[in-house]
Specification:
The chain is built from 29 helices and 23 strands. The chain is of the alpha/beta class. Strand 11 and strand 12 form a beta hairpin. Helix 10 packs across helix 24 and helix 25 packs parallel to helix 27.
């Protein structure tokens, strides 16, 4: 089915029909050439795209683990207690009780019934790097403004247990899980055509409709005026082949392959060749925050006293707390412990001894350690969420080290300071302590009272140094960046501001839930930051942007990004991403950097630009040739060119285009996204096509009146003259319209294209002048003809350049 899908585009179907007709009429040369193009383009597309449809297999591998369930055995007596059994997770059913412990992948969507210090990593689903505590209380259910993943009493398939243990009730399994709905979307084969595919198909149909109109007219005119209907049919067939750019599949494939090689040198691996075109056309990039704009590393940004001034003492208290705790050391603790110099400065080994610990739990949202300092006194050091810490503090320590009561006025000031830190996108943790006599060795939650608030430690996932210049580079190339994250809105807004991304307001996932499609289509245009999103929110945003006419790239590396990766015109992931994200992506970055991405965009546009050159030149040249054929057929007593000569001319012209993938591209042409626009192509074809017809008609007049090729006996001379002029003008037009600048002066083609142009022009002159002339039913041209030939080519170049200026002023150039 995939092979058939790769084959069934309009050009392939038309070329196949022409190849069959050629075979039925014993024209084996045309049959072989056209058939080879179809086969090669189909097989290369099949091989490349086959790699991007294996996401479902990776999902199956992910769910092939076992689970520990509590079940009675078949031979157990009624009323006996359940025992633990290891079973494949495919055998889990809703209602099963499962046992979870540290390191387990969660095999189904479950409700937590009992837990002890349970922390789950939901990074692959939400993008949130910190583990989340889960427990059984009903109050842990998500509030209406939260997403389902925020529910603390639910655990989800595809996430894993970091620490602790739990018993949970299975609610949904397989495709009915939250993860399963994502998997179903990712593995779906009905992926919408990309902008490139739609563009190629639209161009194909323009040329096919043109051929369906012109070829029958050519057939009828020649059959009626010449009386030889069989010869007229073969000539019309040759015109049809000439109208069909049979080298398009080859040019497309070779251009894309060259682009893929160049991109790989820039640390960009292309999985699906068509994606290069979308890379160049992309005008909106949706990206996650973590690891793309930021370093994906939590760092301690500030340590301040109660009033927000820097305080080394607060950092020391926080270091003691993190160093001596034995529970889960999360990323915040590790960020504090990165200040290893404090271990020496505090003389931990000599001056401190751990006495006891009061572990963290969800209700308190804080944890404490008790240390003995030089055996003189004990210090209870507590750190935790600001609200919970204020509930157990009765005093604060001011900038001078003096202790003051925490009254209403002071409480308001504390909340103002912490609110300002939160507004900057910092995660704020409060630090408090109290000194107690050294007569106890066991402490409890009751001892967490009458504390003195010392200050705060604030954390940040810092932005990458390359993020700001990369965003500026993308903006300079016409790519708007929108941040889609599952993270906290304030944190995301702070990061966006730091990297220079204009963020007036933040859209939350809960707001997207309430919007219909028209409302969402309007919203996505007005905002650049979307936070607290679920995977399906991201997919809806991408689809809304595409519906608005944008070419959308999505960059992500988690399971939560897979649906959006598939929904985008171009899915971009990184080498370190989860398997499902890499399989769903079209392009893999070997370095998670927007700067690498910008370089890839530029290279994609160069590839796209070369592709457009071929389409434009072929379409305009073919249009002019057919118009010339119509004029000649109506007035000449013989065919203006034999079918064999027309096919050879077309083949030589196509060969000259093989070097287009290696052509240079002007810098101006890669500054803005390049788009497929069939209307522009039709206008371009009608504007430039008649130029060649003007000089074709001048050639007809030249051969008829100057060289007296007016009878059937002299038709070979006439046909030879038009063969040479037609081929040379077709080949020369490549250089006239490959650039908006002056050819050969302001913009020079790459040497492979120049070399191929010279070689084909030489072959065009050699065929009628050399020993193969009789084989192709051509004849040597008189020497005065070549003086006229030079004049025709110069006139053609001047007129084409002048009209190009007019076209650029009226319609622009892309």
């Amino acid at each position: 089915m995939h092979l058939w899908h790769c084959y069934q585009n309009p050009f392939n179907l038309l070329l196949t029909a022409l190849a069959l007709i050629s075979w039925l009429t014993d024209d084996m040369k045309a049959t072989v050439v056209i058939g080879s193009m179809v086969m090669l383009s189909t097989l290369m597309r099949f091989v490349q795209e086959g790699r991007s449809h294996r996401a479902a297999e990776r999902l199956k591998a992910l769910v092939s683990n076992t689970a520990t369930v509590l079940r009675r055995s078949d031979d157990d007596r009624a009323g006996s207690t359940s025992a633990q059994h290891e079973i494949p997770i495919t055998q889990l059913v809703p209602g099963d009780l499962i046992v979870l412990s540290a390191g387990d992948m969660i095999p189904a969507d479950c409700r937590v019934l009992a837990s002890k210090d349970l922390f789950a990593s939901q990074a692959a689903m939400t993008g949130e790097s910190l583990p989340v505590e889960k427990h059984a209380t009903a109050a842990a259910a998500a509030t209406p403004e939260d997403g389902v993943l925020d529910a603390a009493n639910l655990v989800f398939m595809g996430t894993n247990i970091v620490s602790g243990a739990a018993t949970a009730l299975v609610l949904a399994t397989g495709n009915n899980t939250y993860f399963g709905t994502i998997a179903t979307r990712v593995s779906a084969t009905d992926r919408a055509p990309t902008a490139f595919q739609a563009g190629v198909n639209s161009v194909s149909w323009i040329l096919i409709r043109f051929a369906l109109v012109m070829v029958p007219i050519v057939f009828l005119i020649n059959g009626y005026t010449k009386g030889d209907w069989a010869e007229a049919f073969l000539f019309a067939l040759s015109v049809a082949v000439g109208l069909t750019p049979e080298m398009l599949p080859m040019i497309v494939t070779s251009t894309l392959a060259k682009g893929a090689v160049l991109l790989s040198r820039k640390k960009v691996v292309v999985k699906r060749l068509d994606a290069i075109q979308n890379f160049g056309a992309m005008d909106v990039l949706c990206t996650d925050k973590t690891g793309t704009l930021t370093q994906d590393k939590i760092v301690l940004e500030r340590h301040t006293n109660v009033f927000g001034s820097p305080s080394d003492e607060v950092l020391k208290f926080a270091f003691l707390n993190s160093h001596y705790q034995t529970g889960l050391k999360n990323l915040l603790d590790r960020a504090v412990l990165d200040h290893v110099e404090l271990q020496t400065e505090l003389r931990l080994a000599q001056d401190y001894r751990k006495v006891d610990e009061i572990p963290f739990d969800f209700e308190r949202r804080r944890m404490s350690v008790v240390v003995s300092e030089r055996e003189h006194h004990h210090e209870l050091i507590c750190k935790g969420a600001v609200e919970e810490m204020l509930a157990i503090c009765t005093h604060i320590q001011d900038a001078d080290g003096q202790v003051q009561p925490l009254d209403a006025a002071m409480l308001a000031r504390v909340q103002e300071v912490t609110g300002a830190l939160n507004h900057e996108g910092l995660r704020v943790v409060a630090v408090a302590m109290k000194e107690v006599p050294p007569h106890k060795s066991v402490y409890s939650i009751a001892d967490e009272s009458d504390l003195v608030l010392a200050g705060y430690i604030a954390f940040l996932d810092p932005p990458k140094e390359s993020a700001a210049p990369a965003l500026r580079a993308l903006a300079a190339h016409g790519v708007a960046v929108k941040v889609l994250t599952g993270d906290n809105d304030r944190v995301a807004a702070k990061v966006c501001r730091d990297v220079g991304l204009n963020v007036d307001s933040v859209v939350l996932g809960a707001q997207i839930e309430d919007l219909d499609e028209p409302g969402l289509h309007l919203l996505v245009e007005q905002h650049h930051l979307f936070a607290k999103l679920t995977p399906l929110h991201k997919e809806r945003i991408v689809r809304a942007l595409r519906a608005n006419g944008h070419i959308v790239g999505f960059m992500g590396d988690g399971i939560n990004d897979a649906p959006a990766l598939r929904a985008a015109d171009i899915g971009i992931s990184v080498d370190s991403a989860v398997d499902i994200a890499k399989e769903a992506a079209d392009i893999i970055l070997l370095e998670k950097s927007l700067m690498v991405l910008n370089e890839g965009v530029v290279e994609g546009r160069k590839t796209f630009s070369n592709m457009l050159k071929y389409i434009r030149m072929t379409a305009s040249s073919n249009f002019g040739n057919v118009f010339s054929v119509l004029v000649a057929s109506a007035f000449l007593p013989f065919l203006p060119m034999l079918p064999l000569q027309l096919l050879v001319q077309n083949l030589l012209y196509d060969i000259s285009q093989i070097a287009i993938p290696f052509d240079n591209v002007d810098d101006e042409l890669v500054r803005q996204p390049l788009r497929w626009n069939p209307q522009d192509l039709g206008r371009f074809m009608v504007f430039f096509g008649p130029i060649s017809s003007v000089f074709d008609i001048l050639t007809f007049a030249l051969m008829w009146w100057v060289f007296q090729a007016q009878t059937q006996a002299q038709q070979t001379l006439f046909q030879s003259g038009w063969f040479v002029v037609g081929l040379l003008t077709q080949t020369l037009i490549v250089h006239m319209i490959r650039t908006p600048k002056l050819p050969f002066i302001q913009s020079r083609a790459a040497w492979p294209l120049l070399g191929m142009t010279l070689a084909v022009m030489a072959a065009g002159v050699f065929l009628p002048m050399g020993p193969l002339a009789e084989y192709f039913k051509l004849q040597a041209l008189p020497l005065p003809f070549f003086g006229w030939l030079v004049a025709i080519l110069l006139g053609y170049a001047v007129l084409a350049t002048a009209l190009k200026r007019i076209y650029i002023r009226r319609f622009g150039w892309q």
